[in-house]
Amino acid sequence: MTVRPPGPGDAPLSDLSEDDDTDLAWVSVRPDNGTIKGPLLKGAPLILIGALRMGLMMAKGRGTSAGSGGAGLVIGVLAFAVPLLWIGALSGLRWANAGIRLEDGVLTVRNLWNRRVLDVPVSSLTGLHTVRLPLDGVHTGRILITSKTGKPLVIDTRLWDPEGLKELWERLGLAFKDHGRLDWSQLYQRFPGVRMPWRQVHYVVFTLLIVIGAIAYIALIVNLPFLV
User: Fold this and answer.
1) Predicted confidence (pLDDT) per residue in 110-150, tens digit
2) How far apart are CA 177 and CA 166, in angstroms?
3) Are 73 and 56 in contact (CB under 8 A)?
4) Which neighbouring-strand residues pair with 127?
5) Of 9, 91, 102, 227, which one has the greatest count of Cβ atoms within 10 A?
6) What is the C-alpha separation between 149 and 129, in angstroms, rounded?
7) What residues are paired with 206 via a beta bridge?
8) DSSP secondary structure code for residue 50 in this structure
9) Beta-bridge partner residues of 125
10) Integer Cα distance of 7 and 25 in angstroms
11) How far apart are CA 158 and CA 155, in angstroms?
């Protein structure tokens, strides 16, 4: 989080007009990859043991299945390493590109591909809204930002620096409105134009696809040493 302190006479940014040339305070909120990094670090010993066991099993074989020697060992270890490297690469992209920035009366949000998903004047903001969605369970940290000039944007607070978000909400000076738990149809009706990732809206189908993909991946890895 990077913050330039407001001056003694600064007013909340939501009260400023678009033509105000005052040197406004700025806030930069960095991504927080703790929700991904934490479980990976805790599970690192189990992941390492699992990779070695799979590699040795593929190298030596099991029961009536013949081993594939050194190739099986290498492929077995890589079978665990490749998904982790993929997750690590996406986390690195998000850390390098994503951000929320408030500067000169403009609120900008970028995603992990460095694409602007929100870029609106603060004077056009109409509210901050807390919601719970069908996939959230006990998680209540989703905030929608609405404005007159941009589509509603959902912020998952678990993925951003909490101190930076706190400073941002204070600088915007907007009151929060709690909408409680909304199903998908209620969300789209109440916030027209809001976008949610397909994998979250169809999380049951997405989970099934992940399971099928994992089975296919394991089958490929087990047979790969005999194909190369």
Assistant:
1) 999 999 999 999 999 999 999 999 887 766 679 999 999 99
2) 16
3) yes
4) 146
5) 102
6) 17
7) none
8) H
9) 147
10) 8
11) 9
Please, where are the H alpha helices in 115-158? none
Cα–Cα distance list, 47 to 40, 52, 60, 68, 207 (Å)? 9, 9, 20, 22, 21
Angle at 86 between CA 84 and CA 91, to 5 degrees: 95
* 194-203: long-range pairs with CB below 8 Å, 24+: 194/144, 194/151, 194/152, 194/153, 194/154, 195/151, 195/154, 196/133, 196/154, 200/133, 200/135, 203/134, 203/135
Q: Could you read off the pLDDT of 151-168 as tens digits, one per residue?
A: 999 999 989 999 999 999
| Under 8 Å between Cβ of 164 and 99 | no
Amino acid identity of residue 142, one-letter, is: R
